[in-house]
Design goal:
single chain; 384 residues; alpha+beta
């Protein structure tokens, strides 16, 4: 009785020669296929990144050359473009700008954009920032500065600047130096929806926290830090370039540009101000326009300025009478809110005095006019 193989294979111990032997190499190649594809993809990505970097370098060089031909010299010291594999990082150990009317330096500077989002650029800069213009110079430092620009093929969509622990001083003015500081500063800009194409309108938003300009403290009646919040729309702003400031402002003025103040809020200790209105430049390049103003605590600052000149002409009791009348006039009257509503003049925080409506403030002919009174010894100078 012979033995039979239980697995159906040959009995002499030789391996089977069925199709299983032919599948072995194919299976092994299949295992390596994903790695081969990954390597090819990495090579393609690497080649694409370096190609894009070359294009970016060419665009930067072309822009710098065009700026130089227009009289604007930009210098990026020790420029490098890195960031492989997923982003681009443009680095300058210092960045400087020179033109006939102004020059500045800042650095180091780093600008970063992701490969998949090249039109969204984030910039970080380290101080100090030094600028010189028309006999004035300023030195500014900060703890942290970050800016961002989001653009499309049609232009910018949003620009932002955020600065913490800002400090600086301006020299060459009278008095000099003029020191200033702020714990936090934010600036944001975007095209105004529905108005950018026709009016070239740009929305601006600014916030300044705990700002100080000591030279102004005697005028404003206290040394407390100030807070400022501004929301405005600037028309005819789409044409701004890097020309001289005088050229840019004159182009803007001639085009009928305006600053529409939707809200201006300022606080300094117990003194508060709220304003809205429209501003522009007159033919003599001075600020012009009209503002609706509400204040709390500022009438004690404004009234003496007006009554000083008017009362001096009368002297004695006449001066006191004029000062009293002007003070009451500038005190305005509070708008009574509707039943159950707080009203626009209600205090922002419990315990604060309510806001009072001032007479209309007009900027005209180089003067500041509050109601029928022109603020004495205050002349608006041409901006350029």
């Amino acid at each position: 009785m012979t033995d039979r193989p239980t697995n159906g294979g040959p009995t002499d111990g030789t391996p089977p020669t069925a199709g299983g032997a032919g599948r072995g190499p194919g299976l092994r190649l299949g295992l390596f296929a994903p790695f081969v594809l990954l390597a090819l993809l990495a090579l393609a990505w690497t080649a694409g990144w370096f190609w894009l970097r070359g294009r970016a370098e060419g665009e930067i060089d072309g822009w710098l050359n065009r700026e130089a031909q227009a009289g604007r010299q930009w210098t990026c010291a020790d420029r490098s473009l890195t960031g492989y594999p997923f982003r681009f990082e443009l680095r300058c150990t210092s960045l400087s700008f020179a033109r006939s009317d102004v020059r500045f330096t800042v650095g180091p500077v780093v600008a970063v954009a992701q490969v998949y989002q090249p039109r969204h650029v984030i910039l970080e800069a380290t101080g100090p920032f030094r600028v010189q213009q028309d006999g004035l110079s300023a030195d500014v430092t900060w703890g942290q500065l970050e800016a961002s620009l989001h653009a499309t093929g049609d232009g910018f969509q949003r620009a932002s600047l955020v600065v913490d622990r800002l400090k600086g001083a301006v020299t060459g003015a009278d008095p000099s130096p003029i020191d200033f500081s702020a714990d936090h500063l934010e600036l944001h800009a975007r095209p105004t929806p529905g108005r950018f194409a026709g009016d070239g309108a740009v929305d601006l938003s600014a916030r300044v926290m705990r700002a100080a300009v000591p030279v102004l403290d005697p005028v404003l009646g206290g040394s407390e830090p100030a807070g400022i919040a501004l929301d405005a729309t600037v028309t005819r702003a789409a044409g701004f370039r890097t020309r001289t400031l005088a050229q840019e402002l004159e182009r803007w003025r001639a085009a009928g540009g305006t600053v529409e103040l939707a809200s201006l809020a300022a606080e300094k200790g117990s003194r508060r101000l709220r304003a809205q209105g429209v501003l522009s430049l007159d033919e003599q390049h001075r600020p012009a326009g009209q503002l609706d103003v509400r204040t709390a605590g500022l009438e004690q600052v404004i009234a003496p300025l007006i009554s000083e000149q008017l009362g001096a002409r009368l002297g004695g009791d006449g001066a006191a009478l004029i000062g009293n009348i002007v003070g009451q006039f500038l005190g305005g009257r509070r708008k009574e809110p509707a039943p159950g509503q707080a009203g626009p003049d209600a205090p922002d925080r419990p315990g604060e005095p309510p806001l009072k409506v001032l007479p209309t403030v007009r900027l005209a002919g180089g003067r500041v006019v509050v109601g029928p009174f022109a603020v004495p010894n205050v002349r608006l100078q041409p901006l350029y």
